[in-house]
């Protein structure tokens, strides 16, 4: 058993609302600010800021299954075969309400148009973030399994 744990990464995703995800994995892929990061067992310690994007996890209990989680920024810390993601919000693909995400996308697109008409760059930036979050949730929802 001790030999097995050396080839496994424990993946935890936590938000202010609590633990969103906690599983053992062979591979974790996360969207860092500087590009995608692939994390396997025995990875060097790292801390990286994350952008809005999909986190993919190849679980050890089913090699043919990959979990998808929509993460809205935050950071990733890897140390001693534990990969911890702390994010403002995160949602597993199976829990995403696609209708709600599509409505959020439409609202964000309308806010962008209204803000562009007013030349309100701050509002455009906020609406663009909301749009990116909605699109990320929609894309991740397609990976239900």
From TrEMBL:
It is a peripheral membrane protein. It is found in: Cell membrane. Keywords: ATP synthesis, Cell membrane, CF(1), Coiled coil, Hydrogen ion transport, Ion transport, Membrane, Transport. GO terms for cellular component: plasma membrane; proton-transporting ATP synthase complex. The keyword Phosphoprotein does not apply. It holds the Pfam family ATP-synt_DE_N. Residues 98-125 form a coiled coil. CDD domains: F1-ATPase_delta (cd12152). GO terms for molecular function: ATP binding; proton-transporting ATP synthase activity, rotational mechanism. It comes from the Bacteria. The keyword Ion transport applies. Residues 95-142 form the ATP synthase epsilon subunit C-terminal domain. InterPro entries: ATP_F1_dsu/esu_C_sf (IPR036794), ATP_synth_F1_dsu/esu (IPR001469), ATP_synth_F1_dsu/esu_N (IPR020546), ATP_synth_F1_esu_C (IPR020547), ATPsynth_dsu/esu_N (IPR036771). Its main location: membrane. Residues 10-90 form the ATP synthase F1 complex delta/epsilon subunit N-terminal domain. HAMAP family: ATP_synth_epsil_bac. Belongs to the ATPase epsilon chain family. F-type ATPases have 2 components, CF(1) - the catalytic core - and CF(0) - the membrane proton channel. CF(1) has five subunits: alpha(3), beta(3), gamma(1), delta(1), epsilon(1). CF(0) has three main subunits: a, b and c. Produces ATP from ADP in the presence of a proton gradient across the membrane. This is ATP synthase epsilon chain.
């Amino acid at each position: 058993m001790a030999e097995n744990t050396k080839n496994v990464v424990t993946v935890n995703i936590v938000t202010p609302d609590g633990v969103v995800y906690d599983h053992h994995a062979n591979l974790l892929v996360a969207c860092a600010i500087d590009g995608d990061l692939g994390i396997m067992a025995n990875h060097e310690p790292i801390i990286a800021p994350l952008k809005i994007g999909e986190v993919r996890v190849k679980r050890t209990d089913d090699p043919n299954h990959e979990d998808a989680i929509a993460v809205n920024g935050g950071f990733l810390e890897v140390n001693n075969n534990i990969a911890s993601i702390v994010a403002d919000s995160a949602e597993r693909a199976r829990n995403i309400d696609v209708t709600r995400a599509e409505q959020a996308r439409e609202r964000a697109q309308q806010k962008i148009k209204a803000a562009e008409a007013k030349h309100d760059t701050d509002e455009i930036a906020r609406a663009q973030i909301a749009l990116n979050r909605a699109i990320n949730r929609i894309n991740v929802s397609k990976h239900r399994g």
